[in-house]
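comment on this one:
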Amino acid sequence: MTSETLETISPYLDACNVDLKSFREGFYRKVCHGRLQPVLDSIRLMKELHIWVEITTLVIPSENDDEEELAGIARFIAGIDPGMPWHISRFHPDYEFSDSIATPLETLQKAYSIGKEEGLEFVYIGNVPGESENTECPHCKEALIRRRGFLVEENRVRDSGCPLCGTKIAGVFSAENELPR
């Protein structure tokens, strides 16, 4: 989106999930027929406009699964806000990418580790039920929100924080707990 569009809709847009498909311009030109920089600029601006932003990267074998590239994505996100969630999703061969293999679980686990090493507080593995779905307190590592797929099984966040150590948790957990504008 253009900055003008984001500024116009920001009073009405509370949250956005942005697909950051790669950290290479060549990938964006070849695969997306677009450019990387406008995506990065939009993410930064959304944060400045107090829009809750979560990032999703679909990890495709031999396309965007290089450890250096994944570290670049994680470093970019952490540079904006270490509390910004990064969803690393498993690719399944389909449609125009039917010749590729599904993303190996080991690749996703490595990406998860890279995200944590780069300072991200909330990293999730998607499209793999039971794998890194829960929200943990970044301070004491207590499980705060337990999930199974898209189902929230337990939410222990109290007053926007960890009930064990009191660390404030980034996010919106109830209608009364809106993002500051």
